[in-house]
Structure formats: structure tokens, C-alpha cells
Amino acid sequence: MTDPDRPTPSRALGRKTIRPSARPRELITPAPDLAGVWKARVITLFPGAFPGVLGESLTGKALQEGRWQLETIDLRAFGKGRHRNVDDTPAGGGAGMVLRADVLGEAIEQAMAGTGGNWPLIYLSPRGRPMTQDLMRRLARADGVTLLCGRFEGVDERVLEHYAIEEVSLGDFVMTGGEIAAMALIDATVRLLPGVLGNQASAEEESFAHGLLEHPHYTRPAEWKGRPIPEVLLSGHHRRITEWRQAEAERITRERRPDLWQAWLRRRGETD
């Protein structure tokens, strides 16, 4: 019998309160390492920025399914002193701050612990070589990748030299940090992993797959604002459609990316 004078205990005592969440648990709770699964490790001052857009669409679904893994390493945890300082003024003077070598070294060594020989270490930097589809293919064939996201004026050069870090750039512009570039690199690589796209033909036909930009795409309605779908695409003649798409890919590449066009011609032993 219940004692009416005894207060009813709170529901929170002795149990976990479970609340619905729109975010999949796999993206917000630590996940066990899965043997043989491609993994991205990101060294960053802003671990809360991840997974970000990587938790959406195909990359998010693949992350939940265990087709790839994501681990963030908080650079602040390696900071020095009471305030966990990670940066200092540049030697020789100048504006801004530089990430310290001792802080970065400890973070990198933790991030690379247990990795094999096929595990690139990349620093996202505006002075690096541009990201390309060939780079993404190489990373997709690796066991994983460690990405260092810079901040402020950059990182101590000795770190790049000591660990032979590869520098990669999202483009010829400067951003406030490397996190967005890291997400772009991971996204472009993950979609090349087996089973992520679902339809492998998509990866084989898209831009850069054969050195050319991709041909135009159309879908319903057949006419929109006075603009019809090209007649050849409605003909059902597969050879003509293939020829049209190849010609359009060549035209667009020639007009928009002369550098890619010349490279494609050289591979074919031709000149423009």
C-alpha cells in the first residue's frame, strides 16, 4: 500500500531520462573503432563543428552505417599553462598568432598513433597544392587520413617539416580556419568509398572522372519557360546520346577550364 504522506520520488532518480533527438546517436556519441573501415581524424580547435554537413545526406547515412568513421581531436586539450594556450606571437614580429610546435606535436602524435603506412597527414593551408579528384581517389584508397585545421596566421613551420606534412588548399583564397576545407576534403573522399554512392556509375560519369567537366543534365518537365530538353536526349538512341554528352563535356571544359582541356589533350597525345 502506498503511504499518502510519503513524497513521490522523482522519475529521474535511479534511471536515465530519454529524450527524442533528431540527431542520430551514432553522430553524437563515441563509436567503437571498426576494423578495416576508412577513418578521418581531424585535429581542430572547434571539434563541435563536426560532423556538420558531413552528418547529412549520403555521407551522414554512410557514417551511421559504419562505412566510414570520424574522430575529432581537440587541440585545446594539448594547450600549455592554466589557460591552455595553443598559440604565441610570431618569431621576428608581425601581426597575428602562430600555433605552437609543442602543442601541435603532441596532438599529431596522438592522432597518428596506431596508424599504418597508408595514412596521409594533411594540413589544410592556402599555400598547399589545390584539391583535385586525383587526390580524393588516392585518399579513398588509403586506410584513413589525419587532417590538421589551422587557425590564426598558421602553424609553426618546424611541425610541417618534422612530420613531413602534406599541405593541401581548397582554393586561392584565405579562410579563418581549415575546418570547412577539411569537411570538403572528407566529403569528396567519402563519396568514393565502396557502397557510399550506391550507384557506382554516378562516380564514373561525373566531372573529372575522365579529365573533363561533366556534361549538362536535364529532367522533367520536357519544356520549362520556353526551354526544351535537347531533342537527342529524348530520342532513345543511346549511341547518339553518348556522343552528344561527350561533345558537351569537351565543349564545356574547353570554354571554362582551358587548363583541364590542355591536360586532357596532352593525355590523348593531341594539341589544340
Description:
The chain is α/β, with parallel strands linked by helices. It has two domains: 34-190, SPOUT methyltransferase, trefoil knot domain (Alpha/beta knot, 3-Layer(aba) Sandwich); 206-267, Trp Operon Repressor, Chain A (Orthogonal Bundle), CATH 1.10.1270. It contains nine helices and nine strands. It has helices at residues 25-28, 57-64, 101-112, 133-141, 157-162, 179-190, 200-205, 238-256, 258-267, and strands at residues 38-44, 68-74, 87-88, 98-99, 121-130, 144-149, 166-169, 223-224, 227-228. The strands form three sheets. A five-stranded parallel sheet has the order 2-1-6-5-7, sandwiched between helices. The protein has a two-stranded antiparallel ribbon with strand order 3-4. The chain has a two-stranded antiparallel sheet with strand order 8-9.
Q: What percentage of amino acids are in beta strands?
A: 15-25%
- Which percent range fits the helix content? 25-40%
Per CATH, the architecture of the largest domain is 3-Layer(aba) Sandwich
Tell the overall outline.
elongated
Radius of gyration: 25 Å
